[in-house]
Amino acid sequence: MAKSQTTFNKKDREKKKQQKRKEKEARRQERREQEKDSSLDGMMAYVDEYGNITDTPPDPNAKKKEVKASSIDIGVPKQDKEDMDAERRGRVTFYNDSKGYGFINQDGNQERFFVHANNANRALQEGDKVKFMAEKGPKGLVAVKVEVLD
User: Model-level pTM?
Assistant: First the structure.
């Protein structure tokens, strides 16, 4: 009697291959069932009036609020023209003489303004008390018409 040509290792490998095929087929079958269940409605997400994401569509019979378009403020609120025209007083906190610019802190509220040498009536130094006007510049308010107080 001759021995069988298949050894234990061959049988074991065949069993593993068979098991993998069954698992693969089961996963494939599972995906097919999920594809049937998933429709466009199942994938939709909705946003409620508070900004929360939900899976239920909004109620068309819900009360809607009327909003006037003129009551919506977009952008930065307008600044008062009078506030910019008012004469201010402050102290030079930083000044670079070689570059010709510095900063002025306004008395009272410590608001900071950029100042350039061209906007001053004479040379500025750190610690000088000044009076000035504020004007809108490219990056915020800028001190103009700066006068050094004695």
Answer: 0.45
